[in-house]
Amino acid sequence: MAQQTHDMYFADEKAHRRWKIGFYSSRIFIYLFLTLFGLFIILPFWFMIVTSLKAPNIYTHELSHGVSLWVSEPTFHNFQVIFGIVTEDGRVIAELTAEEYRQAEINGQISSSYNFGRYFLNTFIFATVSTALTVITTVLAAFAFARLDFKGKNALFAVLIATMMVPGEMMIITNYQTIMGFGWKDTFAGLILTNFVSIFYIFYLRQTFATIPNELYLASKVDGYGEFEYLWKVMIPIAFPTITTITILSVMGAWNAFIWPNLVANGTHPIFGNDMRLVSNGLMSIFSAQAQGKDTIMVAGSMVVTAPLILIFILFRRYIMRGISRSGIKG
Questions:
Q1: What is the pLDDT of residue 323?
Q2: Can you give the pLDDT at residue 11?
Q3: Phi and psi at residue 274, in whole multiples of 5°?
Q4: Does residue 58 fall inside a structural domain?
Q5: Each residue of 72-88: b (16+ CB within 10 Å) or e?
Q6: pLDDT tens-digit profile of 70-96?
Q7: Which residues have C-beta within 8 Å of that of residue 199, sequence separation ≥ 6?
Q8: Which among 10, 201, 209, 240 could disulfide-bond with 138, CB atoms 3.0 to 4.6 Å apart, if both were Cys?
Q9: Is 162 within the bounds of a domain?
Q10: CB 51 within 8 A of CB 294
């Protein structure tokens, strides 16, 4: 007797049973694989969270007796150390006398690398200003290439796209010489002014602008809109998901920047004297000064650098995926 399942027909009960076994077996295998794969990805982050909450002496003891994936007595000591609140032995830095502070520096209980509050402020300024400038230049350039007609537009766009084939590392030396020539080393100008134009973002947004019907542009002309009015009132609202994606990716790129900040912002400001390092360079300075018994402090540093990026992605992943789908770029 024929069997029907979700508009599928089977010659007999035996064929129907074989299909059900195969269907549910494949589902079990898929979900089991995805679960194991998810655990494989989550486990390092869980280990990082647990280790950052362990006291250094407890973790050192575990290294010789087996590391635990759980923390019985969580402490924020490691985070207090990297933010310069307490010394490595737990003394409050603000309560130390001048002699105690000097002695703590000699003993390695205080380090100039433990200044993550300043690193976060520097990174926030760098990411905010560079992202704002990137979005402005990207919107204007993408609008020009997508909507305006001028001589040599296609040739110029082809040249810009061709520059994407050139590795960014090849321009580091000339950019560095330029920054040094202007006296911008260890300043925000040196950090930002080589990072506010992205050819990829221009191409990315142009693809979205190109999908907007030309009839809207002609209708806006009838209504008396100028070029910038049409851009502001029509194109930007339509392309807002893509612009949001560019903003998020730009912030994440600024947060992860390492090579260029390490070259031009690894000291103190020439006028104000404050540390100019970003979170990525501050984290590397902790790893460079690695010493026995500081593993939990290094992991805590990794935790505070990684956590904001994970949070940004979790909160804005919907906008990222929506922007990618609207631009027509798959991958």
A1: 62
A2: 66
A3: -85, 155
A4: no
A5: eeebebbbbbbbbebbb
A6: 888 899 999 999 998 998 888 888 888
A7: 160, 161, 163, 164
A8: 201
A9: yes
A10: no
pLDDT (0 to 100) of residue 187 = 93
Domain range for residue 198? Answer: 116-327
CA distance 62 to 80: 22
Q: How far apart are the first and last CA of the chain?
A: 47
Please tell me the distance from the alpha carbon of residue 190 to that of residue 172, in angstroms, as a whole number: 12
Domain check: are 24 and 121 in the same one? no
Domain ends where: 32, 52, 72? 52
pTM, 2 dp: 0.82
Question: Based on the domain organization, do 140 and 216 belong to the same domain?
Answer: yes
Residue 278 domain-assigned? yes
Same domain (yes/no): 156, 47: no
pLDDT at 331: 38
Classify residue 272: in a domain, yes or no: yes
The two structure tokens encoding residue 292? 């026995």
At a CB cut-off of 8 Å and minimum separation 6, what does 328 contact? Answer: 207, 208, 211
Which residues, 6+ apart, have CB-to-CB distance to 281 below 8 Å?
A: 119, 258, 261, 262, 265, 266
What pLDDT is recorded for position 329?
46
Tokens matching residue 72 = 């019985």
Q: What angle do CA 128, 170, 161 make, to 5 degrees?
A: 70
Looking at the fold, whether 159 and 251 belong to one and the same domain comes out as yes
DSSP class of residue 76 equals -
Name the stretches of the chain with pLDDT < 50.
1-4, 328-331
Alpha-carbon distance of 2 to 14, in angstroms, equals 10
Q: Are residues 48 and 146 in the same domain?
A: no
Q: How many domains is the chain built from?
A: 2
- Name the nearest CA neighbour of 77 among 114, 131, 33: 114
Strand partners, 8: 5
